[in-house]
Amino acid sequence: MAYNFNIKNYIPGKIICVGMNYKSHIAEQDGRFPDKPVIFSKARTCIIKNGENIVYPTEVRELDYEVELAVIIGKEMKNTSESESYSYIYGYTIINDVTARDIQKKESQWYLAKSFDTFGPIGPIIIPKEKIADPQDLDIRSYVNGQLRQNSNTSEMIFGVKELLSYLSKFITLEKGDLIATGTPAGVGIFSGRKKLLKPGDEVTCEIEKIGKLINKVI
Length: 219
Hints:
Layout: E1 15-19, H1 23-27, E2 38-42, E3 47-49, E4 63-64, E5 67-73, E6 89-96, E7 99-100, H2 101-106, E8 120-128, E9 139-144, E10 147-153, H3 161-169, E11 179-181, E12 203-208, E13 212-217
């Protein structure tokens, strides 16, 4: 499949996500650090772009946000060493890993809770890898209605981009256009009290240094 890496036309081939990958996010949960990356996926049909609406499903009672650095693969990658990983990257964008927490708690896996239509906002643009010298030194934040919710730096990742890509390539052939979501820091709604969960009318802003702001309203 051919890919156009203009964000307006970009739809990932695979969306591979990493859970519990920030030290602060572990601390706000149970404090148990994973000994290897926690991997799950989202359906590609969940993707929307900057300015499009997140639809609050009638089946959901606990809707949450997660700002994440997204890595876009530029060429086929298999059994790749950490030292070679960066050469397979096309660029970077932002993904909001929108999650139905109540569904997540009920299911034995996370796929359904994270794959509702509109649960994968990405954007606002794709930054070529050459524009970001070090993906492990980027400020990352989220806001709801202008109120700061998450505030961290990608240096806080437990498993960095190089390590994640090499690890995944040992199990899965990563292809041109695949998107890897690298995890979220502390400050998600579910661990901040029910009043911090999303509701219709809220505006979510996800911001990463050198990439910009991804803004989506909940309807």
